[in-house]
Amino acid sequence: MAPEPKVIAGNSGNPGVRARVTGIYSRLVLLARELPEQMSSGENADIKGVKRLIQHLTEMISDDEPMVLGMALGESRYDYSYRHPVNVCILSVALGHKIGLSKKELAELGLVAFLSDIGKLLVPPEVLYKQGVYDQNDWRIMRRHTVQGFKAIFGIPHADEQLMRAAIVSFEHHLHCDLSGYPAVCHIPEQDFYTRVVVIAEWYDALTAAKSYKEGYRSPDTAIKTMLEKAGKELDPVLVKVFVSMMGIYPVGSFIMLDSCELGIVVEPHAVLLKRPRTLVISDAQGHPVRPFIAALSKRDENGKYIRTITKTLDPNDYKIDYASFFYRKTTHTGKAR
After folding, report:
1. Which of 36, 95, 109, 206 would bridge 121 by S-S if both were Cys, CB 3.0 to 4.6 A apart?
2. pLDDT per position as a tens digit, 49-59
3. pTM more than 0.70
4. Is 164 in the same domain as 44?
């Protein structure tokens, strides 16, 4: 029997920044829990609070995208329903930042993304949290959530233009790029642009999470390959390419083994060599924790051979990786690569 894995953790290089990002993330998760109940009971939904937190999050993504992505991709994958809206928000804003949206547009996109799947949280718990495979009736109930989300957002008192956009995206986000999805519609020439951005973020977060109606963890690189296969059908092909260039073939947060048998966490994709990201090495060839250091996998030795190469991705849950303690290390972003 394999020994119980030790928790592999680093030391935070900037506890103030870590506390701020963690606080914003946690408050948004809490709001994701509260909003469906507020909407169902007729209470005033705290949309102002959501907008304020997303504005702060947008600014932090613009300043330090890898760090905030690390927060989203490294948080627990087993509280999916309420973390999912926050992760989709972060990934959508990061993609919007990559394609050059303005700060105002990024804040709007973040709100739209956060609310895009609100209808799913209105699905009966016995269906939403059902263990095992969904039957036809389960899927029939689940597929109503796009319309439920539209109605819930549209029904918010004094809904502004941003909320109207959010209602549209909630309605469309399972429609597919080629309009072959659900709900069945007529006279829609194409999905809203924000929908196409949000759907890519939703796909990635869903594929790399463990949730009740699909089998467990899927590695980030496998998720990227799946998304590339769906490009042009269910996903916008241009935006998928931009997303892959942002995340890399081995996306930020991927837990990987190198040909040196060292273990590491991908912290930043290479701009050109997508299979050779900057990696934070956290253990030696024997599996012993080391003082984390950045390894640029694009580096070669004097003979022109790559010094380190990724051999495979691993499930971080098997190693109890404390992602946050690594993603807030100052060396993650500024340390000299070896």
Report:
1. 36
2. 999 999 999 98
3. yes
4. yes
